[in-house]
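Dear colleagues,

As part of the handover before I leave the project, I'm documenting each prediction I ran so the next person doesn't have to rerun anything. This entry is a single chain, and its sequence is reproduced below.
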Amino acid sequence: MEPNNLALLCDPETHEALEFQADALVNVRSGKRYPLQDGIPAFAGNVSGQNKKYQALYDRIAAFYDSSEKLYSWLKRKQDPRRVYLHELDIPSGARILEVSVGTGANLRYLPSDATCFGLDLSWGMLRKCRKNLRKWKRAAELFHGEAEHLPFRDGVFDVVFHVGGINFFNDKAGAIQEMIRVARPGTKIVIVDETEKTVKEQYEKTPLVGKYYRDRAEAVTDPTLLVPADMSEVSCKNILDGKAYCVTFRKP
């Protein structure tokens, strides 16, 4: 991690300042330590509930996630969906961008080269694959291990905040949305994309190896529009990719 980005970080639980100490970021007030693992700050400790369940899934599939995506797109003769939902981003010149649930980093290569990119994910497997991809693409991004419900960033530091895939099964969807709002600057457009119930039911539940993670769910997938706080502006939700996904957008006043 670049030392000059320390000013953007905070303790995800208390929002207090952090400082470097040897191989960790430390909350001096409380003494809480967040270790650096292979240079990536580890902010997610005891993960529980849905987050733990899907952390295990993505750790398991990280190694072949990109290749399976490419194969699916080729078999279905589908265009790259990123060109659809990334078009929703409102990116100023020289923007500081946060992707929550960055996965293997596939979205990052489509972002402007003059942007400063940050990516957070709960899966170490995905983060390691992301870092490998970034080196291959000759792109740069600061990576963090953490939960969307507890972002390790100070208030109002990002020009762009977006999330693709995952929020359907977060422990606390409303809490994650509140955190995305908190770290965004006033005027920022926030974009949230995930699969619809149709996709989960007709595709994910029937996929070998991963289907068991999606079957026997307590409730159907619904878009999180109703969880967007009432004081946000320009709130919109639309189905995209032939109804396979939804795209929720809104702007922080």
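The chain has a mean pLDDT of 94. The first strand starts at residue 19 and ends at 21.

All the best with the project,
I.
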